[in-house]
Write a structure and sequence with these properties.
By secondary structure, the chain is α+β, with helices and mostly antiparallel strands. The protein contains 13 helices and 16 strands. The protein is globular and about 65 Å long.
Length: 377
C-alpha cells in the first residue's frame, strides 16, 4: 500500500526487511545515514550501508563502571541500549576548525573556514537522546545568540527515533520524563515488535520518505498498536534507576551545598571527565590557536572540554574550582538544579551513561538520594 497517501501523525507497519529500503531511500534523498553499530565490544554511532550494520541480536548489561555487550541470537535490531557515543557529535563535533588567521603584506587578516554542511539521517535515536538534542538546541540556538555551525547541521538532519522497550540497568529516563516513548521532534519514530516495526510519521520530511514505491508499508492494526503500548508501559516499570520528583532537586541540592557527602564523593571521583564526554547534553568547550610553519598563519580550533578539567575554571586571578570537591559539586548541581535557571529544564535526560562509564563506579542517582536526604545547610 505504498502508493496510498500517508498523513503526518499516522502509524504504519513495515517488515523488518524494509529497514534496508529505508536506508536506501534516505541515501537517495541526499542524507548520510548513521546509526548504532557494534564495534570494539560496545555500541558506537557510525555510517550505515545496510541493516546488516545494525546491532541485530545484541543486548547489553550495564552497572556502575561496567558495560558488557553480548549477542544472544534474538531477531531484534534495537534491543541493545546506548553505548558511550551520543548524537551530539554530529551537531557539536568534538573538534572543529573555526577560522584562520594569516599574514599578508605585514598585516594579519582573518577568514572564516569554508565548510560544507553535512546532511545526516540518524537512525536509532532513543527518546532520552532526542530529549538531549532538544536541550542542546536551547544551548546553541538561543534567540540572542546562535551557533551557526550547530544550527546548520541541526536544520539539515533527519531523525529516526526508536522507542525503547528494553531499558538498561542504569537507565532512569522514565523518572525524568524523557522516555521510554518519544514525544516529538522526530521525522519518523520506530517501535520494534517481534515480527515487524511500527513507524510513526512525525514531519513532512518523514512523510516524503515513506511516499512512493521505495518502502512497502501497511496500516498498523489495533493489535499492533496495543502490543506496542503494553511493551512501552512494561519498559517504564523495569528501569534500572529512578529519580523521585526531579523537579524538587533544584531547591534541595542548592540548599545542601555543605552536605558531607560532597567530601566523600571528592575522595572517589578521579576528575577524569568521562561522565561529561559521554553525556548527551554537556556542552563545555575551549578554543586553541594552532600556529603553522612557517609562522605566518594560525587556525582557531574549538574542541570539547570538561568542567572536571582543572584548567577549565582557571581565570586571571586563579582557579575558581581548584579541587575535585568543588568541580564535582558544580557538575551535579548544574545538571539537576542551576540548569533550570539557564534553560528552563533539567540538564539530565536519564540515559545513565555517566553511571555506566564512570571508572570510579559512582552511581550519581544514588548520590542524589543521599544528598537530598540530608538536612539543608
Amino acid at each position: 500500500m505504498s502508493d496510498q497517501f500517508i498523513e503526518i501523525g499516522t502509524t504504519v507497519s513495515i517488515q523488518k526487511t524494509e529497514l534496508d529500503s529505508l536506508i536506501s531511500q534516505l541515501t537517495a534523498m541526499g542524507y548520510e545515514v548513521v546509526g548504532p553499530k557494534p564495534k570494539d565490544h560496545t555500541i558506537v554511532h557510525g555510517p550505515l550501508q545496510s541493516s546488516a550494520d545494525l546491532p541485530l541480536g545484541y543486548t547489553s548489561h550495564q552497572e556502575p563502571g561496567r558495560y558488557h555487550l553480548s549477542q544472544n541470537g534474538h531477531e531484534n535490531y534495537f534491543d541493545v541500549t546506548n553505548g558511550p557515543h551520543s548524537w551530539k557529535q554530529y551537531f557539536f563535533p568534538p573538534k572543529t576548525e573555526m577560522m584562520k588567521f594569516y599574514q599578508e603584506n605585514g598585516d594579519w587578516r582573518m577568514e572564516d573556514i569554508a565548510r560544507q554542511t553535512p546532511h545526516y539521517a540518524m537512525i536509532g535515536v532513543r527518546p532520552c537522546d532526542l530529549a538531549a538534542i532538544e536541550i542542546q538546541d536551547k544551548v546553541f540556538m538561543q534567540d540572542e545568540w546562535c551557533d551557526m555551525i550547530y544550527r546548520s547541521r541541526r536544520e539539515n538532519a533527519f531523525i529516526v527515533a526508536v522507542n525503547c522497550t528494553q531499558p538498561g540497568e542504569t537507565c532512569f529516563c522514565a523518572s525524568m520524563g524523557t522516555g521510554p516513548k518519544a514525544k516529538d521532534g522526530y521525522d519518523l519514530c520506530l517501535t520494534e515488535l517481534e515480527n515487524n516495526i511500527l513507524v510513526e510519521v512525525g514531519s513532512e520530511a518523514g512523510r516524503m520518505a515513506l511516499s512512493g514505491e521505495a518502502i512497502n508499508w501497511s496500516p498498523a492494526s489495533a493489535f499492533m498498536l496495543n502490543t506496542a503500548q503494553k511493551e512501552l508501559q512494561a519498559a517504564s516499570q523495569k528501569m534500572g534507576r529512578e529519580v523521585p520528583n526531579p523537579a524538587d532537586l533544584e531547591a534541595e541540592l542548592l540548599s545542601r551545598l555543605d552536605h558531607p557527602e560532597w567530601n566523600a564523593l571528592a575522595e572517589r571521583c578521579l576528575s577524569c571527565g568521562s561522565c561529561t564526554q559521554v553525556c548527551p547534553t554537556c556542552f563545555c568547550w575551549d578554543t586553541t590557536d594552532v600556529t603553522g610553519l612557517p609562522t605566518n598563519s594560525s587556525t582557531r580550533i574549538r574542541q570539547w572540554d570538561s568542567c572536571f578539567n582543572p584548567d577549565y575554571s582557571y581565570v586571571a586571578h586563579g582557579n575558581t574550582r581548584p579541587n575535585i570537591y568543588s568541580r564535582y559539586r558544580q557538575w551535579l548541581t548544574h545538571k539537576f538544579a542551576s540548569w533550570y535557571h539557564q534553560f528552563g529544564t533539567s540538564g539530565c535526560v536519564g540515559c545513565g551513561r555517566c553511571i555506566t562509564w564512570c571508572p570510579a563506579e559512582i552511581d550519581h542517582v544514588e548520590e542524589l538520594t543521599i544528598i537530598r536526604e540530608g538536612a539543608p545547610s
